[in-house]
TrEMBL record:
GO terms for biological process: proteolysis. It comes from Sutcliffiella cohnii. This is Zn-dependent protease. PANTHER family: MEMBRANE PROTEASE YUGP-RELATED. InterPro entries: Zn_peptidase_2. Coiled coil: none annotated. Signal peptide: none annotated. The chain crosses the membrane at residues 116-136, 143-164, 198-220.
Length: 224
């Protein structure tokens, strides 16, 4: 019973803790202006231009922390506050999303692998629990195993996302420093924003792996 309590507590606490770290870091550093005085849109555009990626557009999108790179449309989309703002957080996030655009431009292997996993990961997310629950209630180990395999595909997607995100953050730091957008005194604050954002992906992957292991143990127990 104690193990189940710890397990479910981890499922609840890890994502909430990661989200609180992101919100706290973003709230703090979105109020601190970057010394270059550049908006997030200008930061993104400069890094893209410096890398010869003139075909990638920079657009504003609604919401808070909805920033992302769309590889299909070749667009870096920044939330309004980061698009127009001059903050350390806005510059860091803009550079991170451009990091994904650079990965796409350079055929970064893990990004390509993650894209290839999307269809199978979507299937896993949509059908794994249905198959697992059907297997449990119908006492069918075959259905349970099929559900676990579907879930494993979704979990693999989460795990592969980690090197993609960390690499984008590393590229962001390199570009921000190389272009002179941030000074040495701002590197520490910028890393805090990027590291806090990375925690959400680490927490999501950890929760997904824990959930997969739980069902694998159920399957093995049923076989015995």
């Amino acid at each position: 019973m104690a193990m189940f309590i710890i397990y479910f507590a981890a499922l609840l606490i890890l994502p909430l803790w990661a989200q609180s770290k992101v919100k706290s870091a973003y709230k703090k550093y979105s109020k601190i202006a970057n010394t270059s005085g550049m908006t997030g849109a200008q930061v993104a555009r400069k890094i893209l231009n410096d890398n010869g990626m003139y075909d990638v557009r920079v657009e504003e999108t609604r919401g808070i922390l909805t920033d992302h790179y769309d590889p299909r449309s070749k667009v870096v989309r920044l939330s309004s506050e980061n698009y127009h703002g001059h903050s350390v957080a806005g510059a860091a996030i803009a550079a991170h999303e451009v990091g994904h655009a650079i990965q796409d431009n350079q055929d970064y292997a893990f990004l390509r692998f993650r894209h290839a996993l999307v269809p199978v990961a979507n299937l896993g997310s949509n059908f794994s629990y249905f198959l697992i629950l059907a297997g449990i209630f119908m006492y069918s180990n075959n259905l349970l195993l099929l559900g676990i395999l579907f879930m494993a595909a979704a979990v693999l997607f989460q795990v592969v996302t980690l090197p993609v995100e960390f690499n984008a953050s590393n590229r962001a730091m390199d570009q921000l420093v190389a272009t002179g957008i941030i000074t040495n005194s701002e590197e520490r604050e910028t890393k805090k924003v990027l590291n806090a954002a990375a925690l959400t992906y680490v927490a999501a992957a950890a929760v997904a792996v824990l959930e997969l292991l739980r069902f694998v143990l159920i399957y093995l127990n049923n076989r015995e």
